[in-house]
Amino acid sequence: MRILSGMRPTGRLHLGHLSVLENWLRLQEENECFFFVADWHAFTTEYENPGQIKDFTYEMVGDWLAVGIDPEKSVIFVQSQVPEHAELHLIFSMFTPLSWLERVPTYKDQVRKLAEQGKDITTYGFLGYPLLQAADILIYLAEGVPVGEDQLPHIELCREVARRFNHLYAPVFPEPQGILAEIKLVPGIDGQKMSKSYHNEIPLTAAAQELARLTNMMVTDPARIHKDDLGHPEVCTVYKYHALYNNEVAEIELSCRAGKIGCVACKKRLAQITEGVLGPVRERRAALTARKGYIEEVLHTGRAKAQLVAAATLEKVRAALNL
Ligand code: TRP
Ligand code: SF4
Questions:
Q1: May I ask the CATH architecture of the domain 205-285?
Q2: CB 68: neighbour CB atoms within 10 A?
Q3: Looking at domain 2-186+293-321, what is its CATH homologous superfamily?
């Protein structure tokens, strides 16, 4: 199956992104995968301050590679380097009713949310965000799109656009399916959602000391003042992490409830376990950072491969439209 997915460039990734990437890893073993950086999509909200988008792109792709996204198996590229996406987006915009875009559930929410932060995204480009996404997907004739649940309305729109094109002109496009994986919901160290904007994240490439420091900052059961106070793991962020990463979580739960393990020791155990997960990622990251120009090279090759496919689709589209 041909698979495509993308992420907006947000810089260094965090532990919350790991299970998304692990899903990509599984997919790349048995499918033809295209993974790209949606830098134009970043522009829709960062148009006043696009200065970091490029650095964020390199940082994010570095993390993809460190996790094991493999340029020998998958096509890894940057959206703005394949301008064919923009031509297809333009063509789609000619026959996509405005109402389809206006009724995408995230649209009005996002406009309101960003207005609170002083950002005006009542732009032409932002309204077209899901249509550009449809072009990203359809230009590769992708059939499967691994995404989070929040993105399903965008996939639905993509299917509608494909159907309308096929109906109006010629049957060029498949109707892609969203692929929902089981994504681990990792809390931030303060127990809220993990997010760079909340400053509560564990970077994927955190050094071992940093990992220990962040683990020590995690919120535990406030009722435990003495080491032998009975604990309530259900209110403890450290426990949530044990539940996600430690096979022996049942033992932690019992010891905590019985007051047989202190929070300091419990955090130490956790830091060892997350180090086991992130240590190898950090090492691969360091190795590829040492290869100067490596990420550029990967993206250069990816661009060429992506462009071959994208250009072939555009040929069919132009023929269907008699352009
Ligand atoms: N909108 C996606 C997100 O915010 C990013 C994205 C852009 C994307 N184009 C895509 C994802 C195409 C999948 C396929 O996460
Ligand atoms: Fe949390 Fe562990 Fe302390 Fe229990 S012992 S409150 S699970 S840190």
A1: Orthogonal Bundle (1.10)
A2: 15
A3: HUPs (3.40.50.620)
> Average pLDDT over the chain, rounded to whole?
96
The full set of domain ranges for the chain reads 2-186+293-321, 205-285
Q: What is the DSSP string of 154-219?
A: HHHHHHHHHHHHHHHT-------EEE------PBPTTSSB--GGGT---BTT--HHHHHHHHHTS-
Answer whether 0.85 is exceeded by the pTM. Answer: yes
Determine the atom of ligand 1 nearest the C-alpha atom of 146.
13
Element (H, E) at 321: helix 294-321
Query: Do 237 and 189 form a contact (C-beta atoms < 8 A)?
Result: yes
Nearest ligand, CA 39: 1
Beta-carbon count within 10 A of 182 CB:
8
How much distance in Å is there from the Cα of 29 to the middle of ligand 2? 38
231 lines ligand 2 (CB under 6 A): yes
Q: What are phi and psi of 232, to 5 degrees?
A: -125, 85
Task: Find out whether 176 and 162 touch, Cβ atoms under 8 Å.
Answer: yes
Please write the tens of the pLDDT for every residue from 233-246. 999 999 999 999 99
